[in-house]
Amino acid sequence: MSEHVRPIDLPAPEALARELGQRLPVFQDITWTGNTGSTNADLLARARSGLGAAKPWLLGTHLQNAGRGRAGRPWQNRAGSTLMFSCAYDVHLPAAQLPALSPLAGVVACEALRAVAGQRANGLCMKWPNDVQWHDAKLAGVLVETTRNPGGREAGYTVVIGMGVNLRDAAELSRALDRDVADWTQVQAESGLLPDAADLICASATAWHDAVQTLEREGFAAFQHRFDRVDALAGRPVNVLEKGDILLSGTACGVDEHGRLLVQTPQGATPISIGEISIRRQA
Fold first, then answer.
1. Quick check: is 124 in a domain?
2. Could you say which of 193, 213, 230 is where a domain stops?
3. Could you tell me the residue range of the domain that residue 74 belongs to?
4. Which residue numbers delimit the BPL/LPL catalytic domain (predicted)?
5. Residue 12's pLDDT is what?
6. DSSP per residue over 139-174, as a string?
7. How far apart are CA 132 and CA 110, in angstroms?
8. Would you call 110 exposed, middle or buried from its count of C-beta atoms within 10 A (0-12, 13-18, 19+)?
9. I need a surface site. Which of 60, 64, 244, 276 has the fewest CB within 10 A?
């Protein structure tokens, strides 16, 4: 935690849900709980059941007992240290275009957090596919999952976008995970602005809602230039890893019209749709 910066305190669940309901009129159901297993899993189960109000939905919690990151990794958190919420949206896209939702969610989340933090917070960037970083340290993780809606092909899909933003404990998390982790107090210290939890939630939830609709109309090509403005990997040497093995090495050079990372090698630009990306440290 940055010195002399007060971390964002989470209001009581009921109070936060009321404020979000007032500020997010397009959302048909907003719930905030003291604890749950996983906000993503809860919304996916609800979507598969076919029950409940029309979408979009928002579910947040002060504590996740079975939170997940990408590739099924457990999400570490303690009550009050992380802002955790998920949103569910209907999406009508061919199945082949659904993977673009992952980088899309990261791009617009980074844009939304930049808007809340202000112009001085230019250290906010996104590492493909969707990690939000603060000066190369992970600030927020995004998990995107989809499920087919009941009712057949014409019913489309539900996309659930979950995000966890570290509000405090960067030093402790960095030691525990043995890698650089950031928290929002560091952003506040540089930006000079003091948004509250609802500001971060509303900005992200609204941005995702608008972005999903744009993706349906225009495809990911509409987001390529926006990706470039938040790209943490541009021009940097990277390794593409799978289960710890290096599959490819090259230089990151943006994304293609499908949201796939482009890695330049002597053989040309290779599109990457899966795998972990590691920045190669220069000697």
1. yes
2. 230
3. 13-230
4. 59-166
5. 97
6. EEEEEEEEEEPTT-GGG-EEEEEEEEEE-S-HHHHH
7. 6
8. buried
9. 244
Is the Cα torsion angle 112, 88, 81, 196 positive or negative in sign?
positive
Structure tokens at 277: 């990306």
**Identity at 215, one-letter amino acid code:** L
- What single-letter amino acid sits at 192? G
Within this chain, do residues 57 and 108 fall inside the same structural domain, yes or no? yes
HEC assignment per residue over 104-132: HHHHHHHHHHHHHHCCCCCCEEEECCCEE
Locate 273 and state its tokens.
Answer: 């749709």
Structure tokens at 62: 């002060």
Rounded CA separation 65/44 (Å): 17
Q: What is the pLDDT of residues 73-124, one digit of tens each?
A: 555 566 679 999 999 999 999 999 999 999 999 999 999 999 999 988 889 9
Cβ 30 vs Cβ 17: under 8 Å: yes
Contacts of 107 (CB under 8 A, 6+ apart): 126, 130, 211, 223, 226, 227, 230
